[in-house]
Amino acid sequence: MITGASSGLGLELAKQFAHNGYDIAISGSSDRIFEAATIIRDLGVEAYPHKADAAKYDGVEDFWNFVSELNRPIEAAVLNVGIGLGGAFAETDLEDELRLISINISGTVHMAKRVVKHMLPNGRGKILIVSSISATQPTPYETVYGPSKAFGFSFAESLREELRGTGVTVTALLPGATDTNFHSNAGMDSSEIGSSEKNDKVLVAKQGYEALMSDEDHVIGGDEETKQKAIENRTTPETVKAARHAKQARLQD
Ligand SMILES: NC(=O)c1ccc[n+]([C@@H]2O[C@H](COP(=O)([O-])OP(=O)(O)OC[C@H]3O[C@@H](n4cnc5c(N)ncnc54)[C@H](OP(=O)(O)O)[C@@H]3O)[C@@H](O)[C@H]2O)c1
Predict the structure, then answer these.
(1) Are 199 and 221 in contact (CB under 8 A)?
(2) Interatomic CA distance for residues 185 and 193, integer angstroms
(3) I need a surface site. Which of 95, 159, 188, 251 has the fewest CB within 10 A?
């Protein structure tokens, strides 16, 4: 199962699973999820699309019930759905930020709870949590987004350790900026990041899939430059990283 798979990284991850013979349940909030299912079926596996709003408790529960009713053991769960939000904190709408927190944090915890309780009695299962390189640095002008992804990274590493020896594994994928609709949807087209060249989503999805299958605790998604940036982020002072990100993420007039 993969959340947020109408397009972007979720759909690319679904293709990785399809190429490896998995049938896949996918969720999205728009009718595009049904088009995604057609794309997946064309790769020779079954796709089970479901439209549900991951920002709402009932939406998360609804997709989980849909997956449960398929009555098949879940081999792998990709908690991918997430949204961004650009702009100065003093000017962005609180409602948008609370919605982001609902999807990126509450929704991830909610679905992880259902998935873990399903996988543990089976004694097997793989969970991929899509975080971000933003988890390794402050993200001014995306001041709520970055912390929501830091939550995902720490949550994944914590859960992984708790589940050690149970047969259920947890991996975090931390992509750098990637060529999906993400930045546009976040209102960041006019920022330096929004208009810069990005990582190939096919490469990032492949790296996430392979890290999940080889039971790595986490993987940076992207090219060598992205991986190098993540390494440097370990020792670069937070204030330096914050200033750099502010320049890249600030919206231009
Ligand atoms: N792209 C990047 O640069 C980047 C970098 C690091 C991490 N990430 C992470 O990667 C993940 C996927 O992002 P992406 O780049 O693929 O973004 P995207 O192109 O905007 O795709 C988002 C996906 O989530 C679905 N979605 C959005 N809101 C939803 C909701 N309320 N309920 C259910 N589904 C919803 C969308 O489907 P519908 O349109 O049908 O709702 C779509 O399939 C996110 O967690 C993001 O934080 C992305």
Answers:
(1) yes
(2) 13
(3) 95
Residue whose C-alpha is closest to residue 233's, from 154, 174, 159, 167: 174
Instruction: Select from 169, 182, 15 the least CA-distant residue to 84.
Output: 182
Chain segment 34-56, per-residue pLDDT in tens: 999 999 999 999 999 999 999 99
How far does residue 82's CA lie from ligand 1's centre (Å)?
5
Question: Would you say 218 and 171 are in contact if contact means Cβ atoms under 8 Å apart?
Answer: yes
The residue whose CA is least distant from atom 44 of ligand 1 is 82
Percent residues over pLDDT 90 in the chain:
99
| Cβ partners under 8 Å of residue 74, min gap 6 | 1, 67, 115, 118, 119, 125
In ligand 1, which atom is closest to the CA atom of 185?
A: 20
* Whether the predicted pLDDT of 253 surpasses 80: no
Q: Which fold has domain 8-249?
A: Rossmann fold (3.40.50)
Using the mean position of ligand 1's atoms as its centre, give its distance from the Cα of residue 232 in Å: 26
The angle, 0 to 180 degrees and rounded to 10, between the axes of the packed helices 94-101 and 145-162 is 20
Q: Check pLDDT > 80 for residue 232.
A: yes
